[in-house]
Amino acid sequence: MTDKLIGAYELEVFLQRLGQCFRHPATLYLVGGSSLLLAAGKTSTFDIDLQFTTDDQHHSEFIRCLRTVSRELGVPVELASPEQFIPLPAGFQDRRRFVGHYGALDVFHFDFYSMALAKIHRGNEKDFDDVLQMIRAGLIEIAALEAFMLEILPEYEFYQPNADPALYRRKFDLLKTELAAQQP
Asked: What span, in angstroms and rounded, lies between the C-alpha atoms of 43 and 37?
């Protein structure tokens, strides 16, 4: 693929082309940086992270369309979901946010709280910056994020072999410290 950065315009073109290519009903969820391009003013990302659902009979065709549009536009696409990293908090489905219709595709932002919790799990500086940007944009609130973190913490330990609840809690506390340092 290419090393070019993807902005909101490129994402919009990608969604339009995907909606033209795939003509069956499907739901697409933008995840991570690709979601933040549209919702939080992030200026660029390296790839388009997404998750999708469609009828099993159309799954292969959707993957073909993803591959075709990705190659045509020179933008990398990754299938990703917060549930790869963390147990999802209750009600995550109800917190998705509608982006738009692109042909037969209904496009949503994945639950921002779930995305933030997954970014805290990874815990690198770029991920922390994304979570702070979500807070500043009003997409999530730190108190609610902490409540969701406490909700998933008992399951977190058993979610992946390398899951360490104490380390996760320290990462969350570090995020709160960074947030407090940025407050005027």
From this structure: 6
